[in-house]
Amino acid sequence: MDIDALKAAKRAAKEAFSDIEGVQGFGIGDNVVRAYVKNHEVARELPAEIDGVTLECVVVGEIVAAES
């Protein structure tokens, strides 16, 4: 899969799912778009693919900014 298709799918996922509580962010992996989520319950709310690209959920817990 070409990088342009992956980038487009990542943008679509960000637009579609960023407002869901517990979705922490998005990235691109080996021919997949990754959704970084707080827990398995959030992962179950997301589809298996977006725009024909596999959406892989990665449970990372809650991400918070570190104090400096």
Mean pLDDT: 95
List the total number of helices: 2
Please give the order of strands in the largest beta sheet. 1-2-4-3
Strand element count: 4
Q: Describe the main β-sheet briefly.
A: 4 strands, mixed
Which structural class is indicated by helix and strand composition?
alpha+beta
Range of strand content: 25-35%
Helix content: 25-40%
Run of helices and strands: HEEHEE
Question: For this entry, what is the oligomeric state of its chains?
Answer: single chain
The end-to-end distance, rounded to whole angstroms, is: 40 Å
Low-confidence segments, ≥5 residues, pLDDT <50? none
Taken from the alpha-carbon principal axes, the silhouette is globular
Radius of gyration: 12 Å
Describe this entry's structure for a reader.
With about 70 residues, the protein is of the alpha+beta class. The protein contains 2 helices and 4 strands. It has helices at about 5-15, 40-45; strands at about 25-30, 35, 50, 55-60. Strand 1 and strand 2 form a beta hairpin. About 15% of the residues are buried. The model has no long low-confidence stretch (mean pLDDT about 95).
Reconstruct the topology from this structure.
Blueprint: H1 3-17, E1 23-28, E2 33-37, H2 40-45, E3 49-50, E4 53-59
Parallel strand pairs: 2-4
Antiparallel strand pairs: 1-2, 3-4
